[in-house]
Amino acid sequence: MGAGNQFPGASFHGTVHFGQTLSPNHQERRQGTRQEDVSPEAWTSKPQPATTSDYGRPSTPSRGPISQGQPSRPASRDDFEIAIICALPLEVDAVEALFDRHWDDDDDSPPYDKAAGDPNAYSTGVIGRHNVVLAYMPNMGKVAAGSVASYCRMSFRGIRLALVVGICGAVPFRPDDGSEIVLGDVIVSSGVVQFDFGRQLPERFVRKDTLLDVLGRQNTEIRALLAKLGTRRSRKTMQDKMAAHLRHLQAEADLVARYPGAAQDKLFEAAYRHLLDDASCDACGCDGQLVRRSRLEQSSDDTSCPQPVVHFGLMGSSDKVMKSGVERDAIAQQEGVIAFEMEGAGVWDVFPCVVIKGACDYADSHKNKKWQRYAAATAAACMKAFLSHWIPLQPNRAY
Ligand SMILES: [Zn+2]
Asked: Within a domain: residue 14?
């Protein structure tokens, strides 16, 4: 990451690369996605009859407070511009809970279905001012993600932005500036590094160039938005929106999206290994030295939920689960990544893509599932806040 590319004076930690040209595929897709058949009436800034203006009020069939200018039902699958891809059911649960409308529940209109031969399962609906399609993955990993994304592109030919939303393992201290990432914080990818892509030599592993080089960087539109969101004011606005969406998710008891408590956010020293597989740290008696986290110490009590922070930066993506504090720190130092996950690399090759993932563990041997639902909720909340800054391409908007 070249220091010259950093945003000066801003809290944006990702790298902004200028002068990048779109890959032929991306250019083709973008040029082919303008919708010419949407009438001015199709998009309205008037409140929908059943739309609420506050999370606390009844919300049928629409949810959410920030739905200024909800789009009308698309005429066809080609009118969807946003795809969301999730690997785990608990990630889907959190994302779906933030839909403002569900087109699949609309019995008066024909279903969107999908292209012949597409095995994916989808939900369609509205998030904020966008029509979105949510694609479910049958299993985790890059191959499954790539396959789901490819079929999704076949059925929904107007997709301009794919968001991979869910949970990840975080690097506890950013390698670039040392700032803390705590559980529940959200990482928004400024790039994806496929760190296990290379050759294993007898003595060492030689990684090929990063995905940034192999597959191309995010397109200009995405990079411009990330640069904007990295500025102090925009990031604060985004985090405030995220906090509002998170409160909505936490009000839904069956999502179990409550903050597990600062005392449960344990970071062991990188070299301290978990004692027993298939048992929790409590059950097997992990008692290694804990690393001090100043943000957690600032919490007024154990149950008060520190406001999740959004971190922009490189996401490490691989087919293996990262379960080693030592390896985590080595790769973070070497590659500049701030989190680890398994799907981004698969989608990156297919769609213009941003990975938005909540930190549910520290990618070490102590990883457990305690934080998954909360982290899935913060990621979904961040996704909705992010989308509020994304401008739909379709013309003749009433806003
Ligand atoms: Zn442990």
From this structure: no
Query: What is the distance in A from the centroid of ligand 1 to the CA of 207?
Result: 30
- Residue 17 phi, psi (nearest 5): -105, 125
- Three-state SS for 51? coil
Tell me the CA–centroid distance for residue 260 and ligand 1, in Å: 17
How confident is the model over 360-369, as pLDDT tens digits?
A: 999 999 988 9
CA of 184 to the centre of ligand 1 (A): 19
Cα 87 to middle of ligand 1, angstroms:
25
Does residue 365 sit within a domain? yes
Question: Would you say residue 20 lies in a domain?
Answer: no
Cα 283 to ligand 1 centre (Å) = 9
Residue tagged 């969101």 (tokens): 229
Exposed, middle or buried by CB within 10 Å (0-12, 13-18, 19+), for 9?
exposed
- Cα(332) to centroid of ligand 1, in Å? 21
Q: Is 206 within the bounds of a domain?
A: yes
Ranking 85-89, 109-113, 326-330, 391-395 by mean pLDDT, the lowest is 391-395
| Domain containing residue 347: CATH number | 3.40.50.1580
Pairing of the two strands 205-207 and 198-200: antiparallel
Domain region containing 236: 27-387
Distance from the alpha carbon of residue 281 to the mean position of ligand 1, in angstroms: 4
By C-alpha distance, which of 269, 285, 361 is closest to 323? 361
Global confidence as pTM? 0.81
Residue 336 corresponds to which amino acid? G
Number of folded domains that form the chain: 1
Provide the pLDDT for residue 329. Answer: 96
Q: Find out whether 165 and 383 touch, Cβ atoms under 8 Å.
A: yes
